[in-house]
Amino acid sequence: MDGFYKGFSQLKSEGFKVDVIVPQAAIYLTVQMALHGMKTSNGEILTTTKDVTKYILDEAGVAIVPFYAFGADVNSKWYRLSVGTCKLEDVEGVISNLRNALKKLA
């Protein structure tokens, strides 16, 4: 959990439009992906939370659950990331994949 928290904090400090809340649970991390309105390398605009969720899955290989699945507004930029099946050695690769996907956005 701490590895993912530090990784998201690093991405934020690098200027990417992400945020993270200090871990408060055993296997879930709350992260923000404020990517609405950004353009992918193939020219598609990430208009909806569903677009952002799909982009992160397709480009980074990371599955995140949008907060609207838990009753939040459908346009919420907040997500739940489960780290329950991850190993410590997975963290660096996941953060690297996210960084690469975020770099492709304009």
Q: How is the largest sheet built, in terms of strand order? A: 1-2-4-3
Shape descriptor reads globular
Q: State the share of residues found in helices, binned by percent.
A: 25-40%
CATH topology: Aspartate Aminotransferase, domain 1
Q: Determine the structural class based on helices, strands and strand pairing.
A: alpha+beta
Whole-Å distance between the termini? 29 Å
- Rg from C-alpha positions? 13 Å
Mean pLDDT: 95
The CATH homologous superfamily: Aspartate Aminotransferase, domain 1
How many distinct domains? 1
Structure overview:
The chain is an alpha+beta fold. The protein has 3 helices and 4 strands. Strand 1 and strand 2 form a beta hairpin. The protein is globular and about 35 Å long.
